[in-house]
Amino acid sequence: MARAIWSGYINFGLVSVPVGMYSATKEHEIDFHQFQKGTSDRIRYKRVNERTGREVPYDKIVKGHDVGGGEYVIVEPEELDDIAPGKSRSLEIDTFVDLDEIDPMHFQKSYYLGPSDAENASSYALLRDALAKTNRAGIAKFVMRGKEYLATIRADEKVLVLETMFFADEIRDPEELGDLPRKAGAGKQLSMAVDLIEAMSGEWKPASYQDTYTERVKELVKTKHQGKEVVYSEEEPQATNPTDLVAALRASVEEARKARGAKKKTATKKTTAKKATAKKTAAKKTAAKKTSRSKKAA
């Protein structure tokens, strides 16, 4: 069974729901160690006192904040714990908002919230179902691992999901990118771009997308371990010349429509094959029943 990385209570109004928090996602990672090039010597990091050159144990390290002029304010871990809000391990819901109003830019990481005990499972289910029915999300703050988080709590079928969020002042202003292009004119290019988007549109199917880069890394490691060499030759994309944009859009629309037509034909063939198989199965069952009845009558 999964182990909770945080436990506490969801509080809304006078209701408290005990929950545990669990990781909802995992990333594809290939572990690599560092070596000095041309040798088998591992590179390791040590916490070293820059004045004495001696290694310092982790429990002897404290945090210091640079206040300028080479001066630091040293802060002990206990002092950070003392000022942390939510020491009661509380997910205090401040308000409920329409889930569709939240810009995805604010979402950071997803966690599952599970009921801490069977005795309070009914209150957990009540909150989950009420959120699903109203399409609302609870906005709350909590402290985990020495940091305060803003979070939304929403329903996702059988489970409550907590999304940690960026605070408003943590999201950078796009104006920092410099001069951005003006609004595109309502001409032929825009019309064709819309046509291309429509031609390439489809249903969101998460399982259709795989991490091909990680698979290539695994293949690279495997092949090199066998003493072979792997060569991948892919051309780097180049920006489309503005004078060729209409032609590129037109060709892209035609290609996308052909691809969609091919997909529809394949889907139709599969559906027809399934129906034919179902009919054959039904016919076999009917024939088997008739045979059984004939034997019984005989």
UniProtKB/TrEMBL annotation:
InterPro entries: DNA_bd_Ku70/Ku80, Prok_Ku, SPOC-like_C_dom_sf. It comes from the Bacteria. Residues 259-298 have a biased composition (Basic residues). Residues 53-182 form the Ku domain. Pfam families: Ku (PF02735). Residues 252-298 are annotated as: Disordered. Keywords: DNA damage, DNA recombination, DNA repair, DNA-binding. Belongs to the prokaryotic Ku family. With LigD forms a non-homologous end joining (NHEJ) DNA repair enzyme, which repairs dsDNA breaks with reduced fidelity. Binds linear dsDNA with 5'- and 3'- overhangs but not closed circular dsDNA nor ssDNA. Recruits and stimulates the ligase activity of LigD. Homodimer. Interacts with LigD. HAMAP family: Prokaryotic_Ku. This is Non-homologous end joining protein Ku. The gene is ku.
